[in-house]
Every structure is written in structure tokens, then in C-alpha cells.
From TrEMBL:
Lineage: Eukaryota, Metazoa, Chordata, Craniata, Vertebrata
Identification of the protein by name: Vacuolar protein sorting-associated protein 52 homolog
Species of origin: Muntiacus reevesi (Reeves' muntjac)
Pfam families: Vps52_C, Vps52_CC
InterPro entries, per the entry: Vps52, Vps52_C, Vps52_CC
Coiled coil start-end: none
Domain Vps52 C-terminal: 290-594
GO BP terms, alphabetized: endocytic recycling; Golgi to vacuole transport; lysosomal transport; protein transport; retrograde transport, endosome to Golgi
Keyword terms, alphabetized: Golgi apparatus, Protein transport, Transport
Length: 716
């Protein structure tokens, strides 16, 4: 019933909002019909209020006029009174129907009300239960936090106890001396692996005890006595073993490399002594230094003495210089002083690190060697043993850097000093420049080898050896330069156009030094060779001046330049300064000789061609008309004598030059120049002033001349 009343009130309110009761006798404001289908929406307009404003009324009216229902009602002309009654009737019907529906559903509504009441009771009990649960959870949360705090504290205590246990365990393990260690140190031989293992364990325990004693650990006193007794026993056994190995070096004919290799297997023994008994370690090191230094000194003194007995008996002396007169020692001088031959192989990679010479074997085979071969063998033995000794010292005695250098020189110093003094005494009377130069390059290569082996201990020795060799080499070279400079050609006996023996010595000597120097270039060597070359060139010019004719002078110069160039090109590079210099000298003298060679048979032709070309160049060709008789004589003279002249020229050249290849080249150059001369003669005769000369018909065809001259070219 209450719902029906509510719906009826709502319907009435709708009608009142339309204002139907106020408009029963009036027309619409827009002149519409007598009623509308929808009520006019004028809002909550209060016309009794003092705040009534006409503008607001206009706004409400305008808004209601825009309503779709109002627009439709105004268009169709609905009667609002009739429509209002109809709505009222419908509302009453709906109200009655709603009342009947509510009456029919009253039992269900009552049942629903009872159910809702029951649900409210259930929800209230659940609310009470959840409140209790919330209270319990709050207490449980506080208990969990308490447990977490207790767990964290227990975890910290556990970690602390574990840390203490680990430290304590390490301390106990480091202090406790096991029976296996005691048994091995006291009873096992030092060469057994278990002795070495337990010695390392003993060293670790001794170090641990020293560390703990420094920290004030009282438990160290319980094991100090045991460890000291074991240490003394181990030091005693190790000392006896190492000294026994060192004393074995002293036995005659002992290969000391074998005991050294054995000692390297037990290098921890010395490390143990160094950490636990420094006095014994110093004793062993001093004994090793004393023993090995004597052994090396004795070995190398004996080896040097026996090695020098297999040197060539004939060696260069003070007077065996490049500028001295040739004697019966010529062959020896060439083979051992000025000629390299096979001596250069001593610095080849294969020969440089070849096995050392065995003197008694060489003596049985009556073999002899030059000094550089002995020097190579001696210093290769020194290099090999020094490298091995240095590496052994660094590894066994646990040293490096300056300490390793000092210990090495304590062992090898006397031997190196003895070897250096022996070299110094030998160089005083050495005049073999090639031997000294080869020794220099041997040292340079050995220095590179020691650098590759990472053994810097010999660097100072190599520098000292080079400081002996370089000045001696420069002195010998300057002596040879001076000997050539002071040589008087008139004191050398009879003159000959063949290559002089002094220039041959220079060629062999210079090519030897140049070929050696190319491997490791040195500017000082090139400067000294340049001085020697200047003196040799001056000497050749002085000797050539002794010949009476220019032709003989040129033959002598060409033969000597050609010989020196040929020898240099065999060993030196083609682009070396020496080769280039002598090539230029040879070309210049060869050209001059060809002109000198062509002058007697063809001098008139040469003179006429040069004069005619000069007149033509100056524009005075008309003066050639007065030379017709001379030209005719030249044409007929050349045609009648050129063959015999060429034949004589060829024979003269082949007699004058010892090098057939050079003679052939000179003949070919002379014939080529002759063809060019005759071709120039043809061009002069083609001038208008001489073109009508009858003798031109007797000219030899240039191509025919070329064919004929080729027949005179010698072949070898």
C-alpha cells in the first residue's frame, strides 16, 4: 500500500510540474492548440519569492520549449486538460494494480524479511568470530617477530662459533706435528719423494709457529722444541747432500751439468735452508761459488791453451799490409789476410752455433784453423755455459736482477777476466783485419743470442770485448790506408798494364769487409773503407802516370777498375757505394779509351765531322764548299782501309785486356761509335753544299757497314 501511494504521488507531481490546472482557459504562448501532449518543464519556479527575476523565467520557458515532447505537443495541438485526466486515471489503475500485487506477495515479503533478519544475526556472529581471529593474529604476529629475533641471534652465534672453530682448527693443524713428518725427516733418505713432501710440511709448520709466536700464542711453546729438533736434523741431512753434489764437481773429467741437473730437482732444499738456517745456506752458496769458479777457470785456461795450438802457423805480421811489395808470401797473404774465401761461413747461422772445436781431435787430423774459428769456438762454449750457469743460479739460489748478476760474476768473473786478458794479449800482435772484423760480428751475433735466451749477465762482457776489437780493427785498417798512401810506384818494379796486385788485394779485402758489414751495417766501417778506396784510386792514378802513352794509361786504369768492380760485385750488393763508384770510373775511362782507339785510323774523319757539325750549327754551311777535296779523300780512304783498321783494332783490344768479357764490351762500344760516326758523316754529306759531290757515290751503305762490322764482333 505504501508503494502504491508513492507511485500515485509521483504521477501527481508530474502533472503539477506541467502546470495543467493553470492553463485550462488559455492558449499556448506561441499560439498553439488547446492543449499539449507533454507538460511544460518550468523547473522549480517560485513566483512568490521576492527574488523572482523575469530573466530566469525566460530561461526556463526557453528550455521547456526546446524539449522534444513540448515541441511535439505544440505541433499536434494536444488538450492538456484531457491529457491530465487521462494520466490521472492511468495512475489510479496502476496504483490499484500495484496494491493487489503487494497483497499477493505479502507472504513472500514477510518470509524475505525473516530471512534477512536471520542473515543479520549470522553476519553479526561472523563479525564477532573475525574480531576474535584478528586479535589472535595480532598476538601470533608479535610471537613471530620474537622468534625471528631469537633466530637471528642464534645464527650470529653459530657463525661466530664456526669462525672460531675454523681459526682454531687451522691453528691446531699448524701446530700439531704428525708422526709421518717425524718419521720421514728422521729416517727417510733426502732423495726420496716423501722426504721432500714432509720437508715442505715442516717448513710450513715452522713458518706458522713463527707467525703465531709473533701474535703471542701460548700453545707454540708445546711444539717449538720438536720443530727445532726436526729442523736441525733436516738441515744436517740437506747440507751433507748438497755439499756432496758440489764436491762431485771436482772429480776429473766430470760433466758438471749432470750434478747441476740433479740439484735442480731438489731446489726446495736450498729454499728451506734460506728460510730456516741462513748460515748454512750461505756456506753452501760460498762453497758452490768457490768450486765452480775454479772449475770454469781451469777448464777454459786449458781449453784456450790447447785451442791456440791448432791455429794456422802462418799469420799476418806487422809488415803484411796492402801497400807492401809482393813477395813469396803472396799466396799466404791472399788466403789469410786480404781474401775472405770460405772464412765468412763462420758467421752463418749453421756455423755460428755449431759444436765447439775439439783440439786433440784437430791435432790428430792435422787440421788448422784461422783465429776467428778459434774465437767462435771459445766464445760459443763460454756463451753456452754462461747461459746455463745463469739460469741455474737464478732457479736454484732463488735470485734475480742485480743479485743474480753479482752471483753469476762471482762464479764466472775470473773466467771472463782471463778470457778477456787472453784476447787483449793476442790482439797486440794481430794484423789480420778480416779476422778481427769477423770476431766483431761473432760477438754481435752472440749478444743477440744471449738476449733471446734472456741472459743479461754477459752484456757487460760483450761490451768489453767489442771495446778491444773495434780499436784494433780500426788501427789495422788505418795502417793499410797509410801503406797504400805511402807506396811509391817506382819502387814496385816493372810496369804492366794488367791489374796490379795491390788493387787486387784491395778488391778482395774491400769486398770481404763490405759483404760482412752488410749483415749488421756499421757506419764507422764504411767511413774507413771510403778512406781506403780514395787512397787506392789515387794509387792507381799514380801508377798509370808512369806509362808514357795515354793509351797504355787507359788500358791500365780500365783493367784495374774492371778487376775491382768484378770482385766487388761477386760479394757486395749492386747498389753499394763501392760498386757504383768504380762503375762510373770504368765507364768514363772506357769511353776515353774508345776515342783514343778510333783516333789513329779514323782521326781525320772524326775531326772533319766535328768541324762540319760546328759550322752547320753556327749557320756557316757555305764554308763546306771548299772542303770537297778533303771529303773525297776521306770517303775513299775509309772505303779502302776500314776493314783492316777494324781488324787491327780488335786484335789490339784483345791483347790489351785480361778480361775477355771486358775486351768484348770495349770492341762492341768502339764499333758502335764507329757506326754512329759514319752515320753523322752521311748526314753532313747530305747538306746542299756537298750533295752534288761525285764521290758521294762511293759512300758505303750504312746498313751494309753494320752487317760487316758485326762479323768482327768477337764471341766468347
Amino acid at each position: 500500500m505504501a508503494a502504491a501511494a508513492t507511485m500515485a504521488a509521483a504521477a501527481r507531481e508530474l502533472v503539477l510540474r506541467a502546470g495543467a490546472s493553470d492553463m485550462e482557459e488559455e492558449e499556448g504562448p506561441l499560439g498553439g492548440g488547446p492543449g499539449l501532449q507533454e507538460p511544460l518543464q518550468i523547473g522549480e519556479l517560485d513566483i512568490t519569492s521576492d527574488e523572482f527575476i523575469l530573466d530566469e523565467v525566460d530561461v526556463h520557458i526557453q528550455a521547456n520549449l526546446e524539449d522534444e515532447l513540448v515541441k511535439e505537443a505544440l505541433k499536434t495541438g494536444v488538450d492538456l486538460r484531457h491529457y491530465s485526466k487521462q494520466v490521472e486515471l492511468e495512475l489510479q489503475q496502476i496504483e490499484q494494480k500495484s496494491i493487489r500485487d503487494y497483497i499477493q506477495e505479502s507472504e513472500n515479503i514477510a518470509s524475505l524479511h525473516n530471512q534477512i533478519t536471520a542473515c543479520d544475526a549470522v553476519l553479526e556472529r561472523m563479525e564477532q568470530m573475525l574480531g576474535a581471529f584478528q586479535s589472535d593474529l595480532s598476538s601470533i604476529s608479535s610471537e613471530i617477530r620474537t622468534l625471528q629475533e631469537q633466530s637471528g641471534a642464534m645464527n650470529i652465534r653459530l657463525r661466530n662459533r664456526q669462525a672460531v672453530r675454523g681459526k682454531l682448527g687451522e691453528l691446531v693443524d699448524g701446530l700439531v706435528v704428525p708422526s709421518a713428518l717425524v718419521t720421514a725427516i728422521l729416517e727417510a733418505p733426502v732423495t726420496e719423494p716423501r722426504f721432500l713432501e714432509q720437508l715442505q710440511e715442516l717448513d710450513a709448520k715452522a713458518a706458522a709457529v713463527r707467525e703465531q709466536e709473533a701474535r703471542g700464542t701460548a700453545a707454540c711453546a708445546d711444539v717449538r722444541g720438536v720443530l727445532d729438533r726436526l729442523r736441525v736434523k733436516a738441515v744436517t741431512k740437506i747440507r751433507e747432500f748438497i755439499l756432496q753434489k758440489i764436491y762431485s764437481f771436482r772429480k776429473p773429467m766430470t760433466n758438471y751439468q749432470i750434478p747441476q741437473t740433479a740439484l735442480l730437482k731438489y731446489r726446495f732444499f736450498y729454499q728451506f735452508l734460506l728460510g730456516n738456517e741462513r748460515a748454512t745456506a750461505k756456506e753452501i752458496r760460498d762453497e758452490y761459488v768457490e768450486t765452480l769458479s775454479k772449475i770454469y777457470l781451469s777448464y777454459y785456461r786449458s781449453y784456450l791453451g790447447r785451442l791456440m795450438k791448432v791455429q794456422y802457423e802462418e799469420v799476418a805480421e806487422k809488415d803484411d799490409l796492402m801497400g807492401v811489395e809482393d813477395t813469396a808470401k803472396k799466396d799466404i797473404l791472399r788466403n789469410t789476410i786480404f781474401t775472405l774465401g770460405t772464412r765468412g761461413s763462420v758467421i752463418s747461422p749453421a756455423e755460428l752455433e755449431a759444436p765447439i772445436l775439439v783440439p786433440h781431435t784437430a791435432q790428430r787430423g792435422e787440421q788448422r784453423y784461422p783465429f776467428e774459428a778459434l774465437f767462435r769456438s771459445q766464445h760459443y762454449a763460454l756463451l753456452d755455459n754462461s747461459c746455463r750457469e745463469y739460469l741455474f743460479i737464478c732457479e736454484f739460489f732463488v735470485v734475480s736482477g742485480p743479485a743474480a748478476h753479482d752471483l753469476f760474476h762471482a762464479v764466472m768473473g775470473r773466467t771472463l777476466s782471463m778470457t778477456q786478458k787472453h784476447l787483449e794479449s793476442y790482439l797486440v800482435d794481430c794484423y789480420d783485419a778480416i779476422a778481427v772484423f769477423l770476431c766483431i760480428h761473432i760477438v754481435l751475433r752472440f749478444r743477440n743470442i744471449t738476449a733471446k735466451r734472456d741472459v743479461p749477465a754477459l752484456d757487460r762482457y760483450w761490451e768489453q770485448v767489442l771495446a778491444l776489437l773495434w780499436p784494433r780493427f780500426e788501427l789495422i785498417l788505418e795502417m793499410n790506408v797509410q801503406s797504400v798512401r805511402s807506396t811509391d810506384p817506382q819502387r814496385l818494379g816493372g810496369l804492366d798494364t794488367r791489374p796490379h796486385y795491390i788493387t787486387r788485394r784491395y778488391a778482395e779485402f774491400s769486398s770481404a769487409l763490405v759483404s760482412i758489414n752488410q749483415t749488421i751495417p756499421n757506419e764507422r766501417t764504411m767511413q774507413l773503407l771510403g778512406q781506403l778506396q780514395v787512397e787506392v784510386e789515387n794509387f792507381v792514378l799514380r801508377v798509370a802516370a808512369e806509362f808514357s802513352s795515354r793509351k797504355e794509361q787507359l788500358v791500365f786504369l780500365i783493367n784495374n777498375y774492371d778487376m775491382m768492380l768484378g770482385v766487388l760485385m761477386e760479394r757486395a750488393a749492386d747498389d753499394s757505394k763501392e760498386v757504383e763508384s768504380f762503375q762510373q770510373l770504368l765507364n768514363a775511362r772506357t769511353q776515353e779509351f774508345i776515342e783514343e782507339l778510333l783516333s789513329p785510323p779514323f782521326g781525320g774523319l772524326v775531326a772533319f765531322v766535328k768541324e762540319a757539325e760546328a759550322l752547320i750549327e753556327r749557320g756557316q754551311a757555305e764554308r763546306l764548299r771548299g772542303e770537297e777535296a778533303r771529303v773525297t779523300q776521306l770517303i775513299r780512304g775509309f772505303g779502302s782501309s776500314w776493314k783492316s783498321s777494324v781488324e787491327s783494332l780488335s786484335q789490339d783490344v784483345m791483347r790489351s785486356f785480361t778480361n775477355f768479357r771486358n775486351g768484348t764490351s770495349i770492341i762492341q762500344g768502339a764499333l758502335t761509335q764507329l757506326i754512329q760516326l759514319y752515320h753523322r758523316f752521311h748526314r753532313v754529306l747530305s747538306q746542299p753544299q756537298l750533295r752534288a759531290l761525285p764521290a758521294r757515290a762511293e759512300l758505303i751503305n750504312i746498313h751494309h757497314l753494320m752487317v760487316e762490322l758485326k762479323k768482327h764482333k768477337p764471341n766468347f
